[in-house]
Hints:
Layout: H1 3-12, H2 24-36, E1 40-46, E2 54-59, H3 61-76, H4 84-90, H5 97-123, H6 135-160, H7 167-177, H8 181-189
Antiparallel strand pairs: 1-2
Helix pairs in contact: 5-6
Amino acid sequence: xxxxxxxxxxxxxxxxxxxxxxxxxxxxxxxxxxxxxxxxxxxxxxxxxxxxxxxxxxxxxxxxxxxxxxxxxxxxxxxxxxxxxxxxxxxxxxxxxxxxxxxxxxxxxxxxxxxxxxxxxxxxxxxxxxxxxxxxxxxxxxxxxxxxxxxxxxxxxxxxxxxxxxxxxxxxxxxxxxxxxxxxxxxxxx
Length: 190
């Protein structure tokens, strides 16, 4: 299919929630790269009066093989993914407790909206649509539910003072757990 149709199909199927297809230019760049690598090829050029020519692409045998290998790898690999949220959690103490709680509450609200949208999408699936075509939405719902539940627990702990910090406390923890300059030099020599 041509790139415009590919973009619209991905959006219509809701794949734009898991793959960034907002920019058609990005899709064109991806297709051009796939073509350079021999994974897709031009199969036709469609001319229609009043519209620019549309180049139709088709997957090659090499592209089909590589896509299946890529899929196998993505399904089985559990490493190498570095989501920004995990990084933010690792330095949450850089914000005052109250501000951290507010940001986590905001995230929870946004995730709840995404969960509601996902549930509406699952409910709107055509009757009889095989589960195979709903798996990514089921997974998305499960992740959203789990993250919202976890966030609510952290927010409750922040609100009730069970999870807290201060600059003084952070310094004490650093002194107690981080190696001193001398200890670091000794480790380097060992």
